[in-house]
């Protein structure tokens, strides 16, 4: 998250798998490393002035037998206390 905070999207994206999925809590998502990279490069460069993360919580899980719409595999759920300042409004 340090790379994303600094605006170094390449460093932040380096460990992502090509088939990574980025999910927001509202149900929206981005599928694929390229789509995530494109979104955050534009968003961090044009919209977000500063971005900080603290109080990280990570929960790795392995889905062996999907019960519904989830896919088999290893997933990491992450939560952060996030503070963002936006360029156009200056609001946090």
Automatic annotation (TrEMBL):
InterPro entries noted in UniProt? NTF2-like_dom_sf
Supply the name of the protein: Nuclear transport factor 2 family protein
């Amino acid at each position: 998250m340090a790379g994303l905070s600094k605006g170094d999207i390449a460093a932040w994206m380096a460990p992502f798998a090509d088939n990574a999925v980025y999910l927001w809590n509202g149900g929206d998502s981005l599928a694929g490393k390229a789509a995530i990279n494109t979104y955050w490069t534009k968003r961090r460069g044009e919209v977000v002035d500063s971005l900080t993360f603290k109080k990280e919580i990570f929960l790795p899980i392995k889905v062996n037998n999907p019960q519904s719409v989830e896919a088999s595999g290893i997933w990491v759920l992450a939560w952060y206390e996030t503070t963002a300042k936006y360029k156009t409004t200056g609001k946090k």
